[in-house]
Amino acid sequence: MTNTLIIIYFVLGFWGFFSIIMHGSRPTKSLAWVLTIFIIPFGGVLLYYLFGVNRRKFKFFRLKRSQKRKLYDVENKEEDSPMFDFHFQNKQSEKLSKLIKNNSYLSASKGNNIRVLNTGEETFDAIFETISKAKHFIHVQYYIFEKGELQDRFHELFKKKVAEGVEVRMIYDSFGSVSFRGKLKKRFKEIGVKVYPMMPIRLGSLLFTLNYRNHRKIIIVDGKVGFTGGVNVSDKYIKSISDLGIWRDLHVRLEGPVVNSLHRIFIKDYHFASKKELLLKPKYLPEPEAAGTSIAQIAASGPDSNQPAIMQQYIAMIGLAEKCIFIANPYFIPDTTVMQALLIAAQSGVEVNVLVPRKGDSLLATYSMFANFEKFLSVGINIYTRKDFSHSKVIVIDDNIASVGSGNFDYRSFEHNFETNAVIYDEEITAHIIDEFECECKESDKLSYKEFKSRPRIHKFMEGLAKFFSPLL
After folding, report:
1. Residue 386 and which of 57, 163, 168, 469 are 20 to 30 A apart at CA?
2. What's the predicted TM-score (pTM) here?
3. Percent of the chain, pLDDT > 90?
């Protein structure tokens, strides 16, 4: 029996090693998986099969419907509109806009009205107010749609709007919203809401979909108003129900042509979740009309994208910065490419400021994040640790371009998750975000290179251990 297990172990180990060598995306990540396979008997192979296999070259991304997802953006491009036909006054914005258009298939648009929402309470007040005024349809997409007061308020509003003849459609991530099933899901369907999971967790497809999650947060009302950012439907954003206190996050309310772009992302995901409706109709994509003076663009990516668009967006913004960079992120674990871009920017004279929570919701992620700080501090990057838990995903450069969305600075957002960011080319809005950032920095602790370097050895060991596994996060 023992010999049989040894043979099976070596066969599985060899398969894993061969698969990593043939299809590994990055040497550091590949090395981490090789060591995991041989350090953890049997379990290492299982972990690799669940979370490490490059699905782009395996069954999940060879499936017919996945190929259709890849073709969707090419075949259903945005229609020409004067709102999308213009030129930027500066090269920074022009270059970034062109990159996003080429890898996300979504153009920048003028004539938008954008409101930054700084807290969960402010965000949901704006969302519920907008939903209450819906006349035609409400489309909702969340990574986490959690049981609680907020979910009850959505149910109450949806019930009222459906009774008024408003169409309500909703998609959710089956892993992030794992509790949204059974009676909770049924009560939404019973009032007339069309509800579908993204990549449902089922036995037949579990091994091919578990590692790929839809992390987007999108609401579209009547094709006129949209919301996106980092806020999930969870009472953590409005009340203190854990030792992290009330979660802080940044969200944006959008009006104008950019809503058309954001809605196209929902329509694509809804089509592939429902397997029924393709909502590319004038009713759902009305002719874009000006609602303000801001220029904005949607960046989106996923494991079925031809390019890692969110990662490329962040690298481009870092590289385009001439004066300053502001980054707020709860999972600031950049890969080698992004890390080098930040180091180059700092050593080129660009002021780089990073704001992260001192304590996170994942111990492994927190230690992984702190593992890179010594190197960042050594080149003059300013790092601030805030006392509360901030879930915001924000990057701002040079007082004129800001990004607010769902994309983290980690491997998961870059490679495995479906993400969406709103990129805002507006000095006034950018200044507002920077003001908020600087206020938070004043209330946070600024790390000292000398003091951080002399931190306890146990902390360095835990950071090094976590860093080893960071490519697997």
Report:
1. 469
2. 0.87
3. 66
